[in-house]
Amino acid sequence: MEYKTIQSNAQKSVALVAHDNMKASLIEWTNTHIEQLRNHQLYATGTTGALIAKQTGLSVSQLISGPLGGDQQIGALITEQKIDVLIFFWDPLEAQPHDPDVKALLRLAAVWNIPVACNIASADLLITSSLFGQVFERKVPDYQRYISSRT
Ligand SMILES: O=C(CO)COP(=O)(O)O
């Protein structure tokens, strides 16, 4: 796929989310890339955001805690095209009470074609990509066409 760059060195909106057993990994990753992340607008679910702000000093817009609706808030921001990248360290070894919300968030990220990283290796690749700091034409659902095809 060829990317048509609209803007370089762009500020991105990055959503950071981690389940409890994965929070230490996300904070470690955040610290590793702190200088780059400083240039972007950060959003996070409640507890993840509070921990990142406390342990890294980064400024983070904190939403509701995940089990109380934070995943859904991030999903809603994705549909409004206000999130460019999702870093979501979900726990592959422990069931979550809000599993439907987790699945819904991952689904919306796929629908709206935003890059998602679910572990340190993929998050490293994503943030070091030359595409990370660029705004490029991205295939998103054609909402008007979708509605007219159904009405
Ligand atoms: O549960 C979460 C994501 O599904 C994360 O929520 P917290 O950041 O509030 O722990």
Automatic annotation (TrEMBL):
Residues 4-151 form the MGS-like domain. Keywords: Lyase. The keyword Translocase does not apply. GO terms for biological process: methylglyoxal biosynthetic process. It catalyses: dihydroxyacetone phosphate = methylglyoxal + phosphate. The active site is at 71 (proton donor/acceptor). One of its GO terms (molecular function) is methylglyoxal synthase activity. Pfam families: MGS. Its EC number is 4.2.3.3. InterPro entries: Methylgl_synth (IPR004363), Methylglyoxal_synth_AS (IPR018148), MGS-like_dom (IPR011607), MGS-like_dom_sf (IPR036914). PANTHER family: METHYLGLYOXAL SYNTHASE (PTHR30492:SF0). Catalyzes the formation of methylglyoxal from dihydroxyacetone phosphate. This is Methylglyoxal synthase. It comes from Thalassotalea euphylliae. The lineage of its organism: Bacteria, Pseudomonadati, Pseudomonadota, Gammaproteobacteria, Alteromonadales.
